[in-house]
């Protein structure tokens, strides 16, 4: 195996592992730059081989998730997963209402979620939150929804 190709593969795997923890858009940019640099250093025959292998594995399809309301209950699974990891007492959440997902001009998505859950003191409270999700389905922010 060519030294450049071996080094390229090691760095590629490290960036993919980092991408699992952080935003994919940043990692995809780094991967694209790394691919260009590696191709510039490789002999032409290896570069063609690497491009052929790359084209058979669609990276965008693996990283992009559709941001949709569930046809079953109207929920948005990315928001539910985010709340499960980031909310004070996620097990206490009782859904009240989901809005329809709306795509913004910038390519992000917005959805409102009204739910009951335990607050920091243990009492039940009604929350009405707006969530902004990136084009890949990652929750970017949560704010209070003012009607």
User: Shape from CA axes?
Assistant: extended
Return Rg in Å. Answer: 21 Å
Count of structural domains: 2
Structural class: alpha+beta
Q: In angstroms, what separates the terminal alpha carbons?
A: 61 Å
Strand content: 15-25%
Question: What number is the mean pLDDT?
Answer: 76
Give helix and strand order, one letter per element, not per position: HHHHHEEEEE
Count of alpha/pi helices? 5
Largest sheet: 5 strands, antiparallel
Low-confidence stretches: 44-48, 50-63
By DSSP, the count of extended strands is 5
Give a verbal description of the structure.
The chain is an alpha+beta fold. It folds into 2 domains: 3-62, no CATH class; 77-144. It has helices spanning 3-21, 24-41, 44-55, 59-63, 77-86; strands at residues 94-98, 102-103, 109-118, 124-133, 139-144. Strands 1, 2, 3, 4 and 5 form a 5-stranded antiparallel beta sheet that branches. A hairpin with a 5-residue loop joins strand 4 and strand 5. The longest helix is centred in the first third of the chain and has 19 residues, at 3-21. It is extended, with a radius of gyration of 21 Å. Mean pLDDT is 76; it is low at 44-48 and 50-63.
Concise overview:
This protein has helices spanning 3-21, 24-41, 44-55, 59-63, 77-86; strands at residues 94-98, 102-103, 109-118, 124-133, 139-144. It is of the alpha+beta class and 147 residues long.
């Amino acid at each position: 195996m060519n030294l450049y190709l071996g080094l390229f593969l090691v760095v590629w795997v490290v960036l993919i592992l980092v991408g699992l923890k952080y935003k994919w858009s940043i990692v995809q940019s780094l991967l694209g730059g790394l691919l260009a640099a590696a191709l510039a250093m490789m002999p032409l025959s290896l570069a063609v081989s690497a491009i052929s292998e790359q084209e058979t594995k669609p990276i965008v399809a693996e990283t992009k998730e559709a941001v949709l309301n569930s046809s079953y209950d109207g929920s948005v699974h990315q928001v539910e997963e985010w709340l499960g990891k980031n909310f004070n007492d996620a097990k206490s959440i009782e859904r009240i209402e989901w809005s329809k997902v709306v795509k913004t001009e910038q390519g992000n998505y917005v959805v409102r979620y009204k739910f009951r859950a335990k607050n920091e003191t243990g009492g039940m409270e009604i929350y009405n939150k707006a969530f902004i999700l990136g084009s890949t389905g990652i929750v970017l922010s949560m704010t209070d929804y003012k009607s």
